[in-house]
Each structure stands twice: as structure tokens, then as C-alpha cells.
Amino acid sequence: MISRGRAGGWLKEPIDVLPKWATFHGVAFNGVKVGPLPGFEERGSTVITDQKIEGGDSEPLLVVPKDLIISRQNINLFAKSDHHLRELLDALGDLGRTTRGAVLTFLLLQATICCPETKDIGVLNPLTEYIKFLPDELLPTFWTEEEQELLAGTTLKPAVSAKLNSLLREFENLRSATESIGWCAKYWWDESSGMLTFDDWMRVDAMYRSRALEFPGAGDCMMPCIDMANHASGDATAALYETDSDGNGLLLLREGKRIDQGDEITITYGDDKGACENIFSYGFLEDGMTSAKVMFLDLDIPDDDPLRPAKIYVSTAAPGFRIFEKGDTIDWESDFIWLIVVNEEDGLDFKVRQTTDGKREIQAFWREQELDTAKLREYIEADPAWDVFRLRATVLLQDRVEVQMETLRQIEGIRQTATVRDVPFMLASRLRSLELEMLKRAASTLESQRAQLLDADAVQKYLGLTGGDEDEQVDFS
Fold first, then answer.
1. CB 224 within 8 Å of CB 131
2. Which helix (H) or strand (E) holds 348?
3. Which residues of 35-70 are buried (b: 16+ CB within 10 A; e: fewer)?
4. What pTM was estimated for this model as a whole?
5. What tens digit of pLDDT does each residue of 375-415 get?
6. How many other CB atoms are found less than 10 A from the CB of residue 146?
7. Domain count, the chain
8. Is 132 inside any structural domain?
9. In this structure, is residue 200 part of a structural domain?
10. Mind telling me which GO cellular component terms the entry cites (predicted)?
11. Which of 116, 418, 433, 473 makes a 20 to 30 Å CA pair with 221?
């Protein structure tokens, strides 16, 4: 593992050294500082005031010079004078050209430079030292297998599994792409002296995932010092972040806010993010959170659907549906579900055609017209059987919600063991409770929608109930 410290993680600098680093590199503080909140030291460092401040003051609370921003643009600039960084970005191909890939690669190289065992690797820059101030985040990708099992039945369980598989593929691609580079072979991959491990790749992913902000004018990036600020939503958000006309990062107190000396300056990581995403990306749930806000449940095309292979081939939609709060009610949306509920007898068809370069591809059709499956809903909304399709979708979603609820109920009352840490246990318990409550609300909403659709004229005609026994129970699955 790179730059090993006493606890086996990366070497760290005490947070009280950060002001010296920041001042030396031009970060301007105005009435604030970075450090632990008095009485809540166990939460780590945050941005706090060192005097009483009020919103509307002309000066920003923090000004971060643009050349300290960890962004793809700046990383490309660093790569012009650091041929080791340029080698890595070029070797990684498409991944190295993405913002996330560039940032993770940059962080990994800085950690390598910091390691006492490495010689003549990389070019020192102000951010080489900054990563030593960043704490290790206890995101679910760092939970033990036993702790991850607590997530069974939640939407976070498949998300964590998929993320770990993705990170492992990336790490293996990193190895295969760089093991022919001399210094990488020596310091990263050598069987006896290589330092790089999968944990290191997970660590830089966690750093970026938990600290990246979308700054106007700078895009997704890590903003030193400002990225130490904690999250609060709604009226509790104390400050805003943006860039000035020169591209410097700013932290600005919201108009009308008054913060006493020693209190915390909070920002928002995104008020609309649900409980699952908050734990996944940031490793916490906000105090007082009473709703999961949004959930994504997977869906599959039934095995007995004769069009299943073709549907899977042409689909570009996420295979599932999203449940979300809409005011005081629950609503849902999905592009994928319409591909499940329409079939050949409804007007869906697929044909194989040969392209100009001799390859074959499958083309979808709706009632003999070429179909872009991403816009399937637009086609079937205009169909006289639209309410029939909606009913099929509603029944399918009802079944899926019931399955998810049953899975969650089966693990209710699970108890903490001596090998499960407090934070994962608390977060998993709260997430199960929030998602179960939201699923109950979704089930009620779907039942109401189903009842309304059963009264629709198109459905009555389709089921042959017009003028007949409208109370007859029909298996519509």
C-alpha cells in the first residue's frame, strides 16, 4: 500500500498544519478556518468561523486560487510539465480522458510521490501535500462483507456490489495498461517491492466520490479547503460555492445568514439526493432525515418473452424504475418498463438489417414504423391502448415493490455483532427503515393507480368487461 502510516493507511498530516499550507499557496480565509467543530471532534475537520459573520458581506469566506483546483483542465496542465503523469493518462486511454479517471490517476501519482521509497517520480506541486490532509472516508465500499450483508433488501446493496466490480475491473485495466511502464513496474507492480493495491484504487475513488463538487465554470472538481465543508440541506445550508471571473473558487455566505463564532459553515452536496446516494457517496445520513426521497429498483424482461433477446439488444435505458417524492405524494418513472410491457401482438416488431459496412443490426419497429426505443413511450402514449399499457406497467411495478418489501421485512430486527462497527450498523438500519416506509407509500400509490386504470374505457374493453361483471378478478401480470 502506498505511503503507509501507523494504521496501514496513507501517510497523513495533522489538520493544524493545513492553514500554513493554504496560506503559503495563496488560499485566502476571511473569518473562517478549517478544523474540528468544538464538542464534535470525532466527526473530523470542517469549515468553522473564527468570528461572528453575516451574509451580504462583500468578501468571500474562502478564495482558492484556480491553479489549486483539482480539475481535468488543471491536471492536463500539470501533465505538460510532468511526463510521468502524461504517461499514465495516455496509457489509460478513455478512462484517462474522463474527469474522474484523470483525477483518480492524479491522486494516485501524488500518493506515490509522497512515498519515501520512491525516487525521481513525478513533479512536486502544491497538491502533492494536500492529499495528506484528506481523511479516509468510511464509504460502503470499505465496509466488511458482514457489514455489507446488513444492506440486503436495500437499493444500496446492488449499488455497492456493482461499484466494487467496476473498481476491480478498473484496477486490473490500470495494471495491464501501466505494467509495461518502467517506473510503474518497479514501484507499483513488482512482486516483492510493488506498493500499489486494490485498496489504494478504492481510496482515491472514495476521495473523489465524497469530495467532488460541480463548480460553475470549473465543472466536476475537488476544491481544496472548500471540500472540507460538511453538508446541510434546505435552510440549514449556510454557504454557496462558485467561481469568480478569474476562475478562482469561492465560498460565499448566503444572504441573510448569521453565524456565531465557532459555529460550522455548511454547504449542500445536493438537496435532492436520496438516502441511498448519501450513504454511497458520502458515508452519512443527515440528522433528522425522515424519507429515503428516491429509490431505484431493477427490473428484468421475463424469460418467457419471445422478444426478450431483441429487447435487451436494442435497449439503451437503465433496466429498472425510479420511485421518488413529488410534493406530498410518491411518483415513479421508467423508460425501460415500456419495453417490457409491449409485445408483438401490440405492434412491436424487430427486423435484422445489414449496414453499409456489411454488419448486421437489429432495428425496432412500432406498427411498421422505425422506432427509437428511447422514445417508445412517446409512441405508445398516442396509441388507443395506452391505458392498457399503463395498467400492465402498474401491475408489474406493484409486484416488484412487494418483493422488495418482503426482502426488507425478512431482515428486520437484525442485531449488531461484535465484528460490525457502529457507523455501518447505524446507517444500514436507518436505510432499511427509510426505504421500507417509502416502499409502503409506493405500494399504496400504485394500488390507487391500478384501481383508476381498471375503470378506464380502453381497459374495460380490452378485458371484455364492458357491460359485464366489472368486479371479476383478472390476472393481468
1. no
2. strand 348-354
3. bebeeeeeeebbbbbeeebeeeeeebbbbbbbebbb
4. 0.89
5. 899 999 999 999 999 999 999 999 999 999 999 988 776 77
6. 12
7. 2
8. yes
9. yes
10. nucleus
11. 116
